[in-house]
Amino acid sequence: MNTPTLKRVVFLLLLTLVTVAFGWVLKPFFGAVFWAVTLALMFDPIYQRILRAVRGRTNLSALITLLICLVIVILPMALVTSTLVAEASALAQRIKGGELNFRLYFQQILSALPHWLLDWLDRLGLSNLQGVLDRVSSGLAQAGQVLASNALAIGQNTFDFLVSFVIMLYLLFFLLRDGRDLSKLVLESAPMERDHTSYLLRKFTTVVRATVKGNVVVAVVQGALGGLAFWVLGIHAAVFWGVVMALLSLLPAVGAALVWVPVAIYLISTDAVLQGVGLIIWGVLAIGLSDNLLRPLLVGKDTKMPDYLVLVSTIGGMSLFGLNGFVIGPTITAMFMAFWALFNRGDDETLEGG
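Predicted structure:
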């Protein structure tokens, strides 16, 4: 190996090592960095409009955009979180005190089942319904306590949350102000064809915007519709269950039905037939159709990914990266498709579709 080649190899190894080390340093603040980048991509069009309105004053434009982001996104989330913590705490106390008895609720449902259905369950080998009931109710009680304790952990880890929050806002300001320059730097520095790098950056931006916009809109709509229905029916902790339905709605095809369907069954089995049927109608027509109409329009259309890939990548992303995975999973999948499109097809054909 000649000297120039050796120097190049050593340089690339050191570059890789430093890059990995930099990522390791940022790891404790991954969530703050991730959401700063995501929000910067989401609010960049607003920043550009304000920048033109204030005649190119970048600091002022970034500050105004940051304030808009606070009003539209962060403050409402803080208000909902505070209400969620309060209701989760009250829910945990009711479970602990026995006021909420999942075993009793399931017993009421079983008592309302017709004899032919009970006989059918016996033929399926579920003859020991009491044992099944005890296990299910115990699991639900534990799940409720875990949900409540996790919500309470937000308050217990206030300092860490505030540090990450301040870092996110700090980074968001500079990413808004210097984002275009950073993208140009990536475009010029990446060891790839300029057109390929430009196409991939556009694809990444489009997918992140579409995923966040679509999933967040669907989650907010479904959570609000579900919470409203529970509030009208007089179900305790309507905000808490609305937030749970919003989080579950991040999973396409199943989502909020995991909450409102059991509640509707319970209402029907306890002679509240009108309320139960009304909840089913509301769940199917309002909550369910909002997912079927909004998600393909906001997510699949812009990402150009089929629904089954959106579903699998969302579930896989959330299983690996937690809540952040509802953005990371589809983004990785879309970039996977984009790289293979560049590899398999002609450059001109691929870039025209990008």
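Summary: The radius of gyration is 25 Å.
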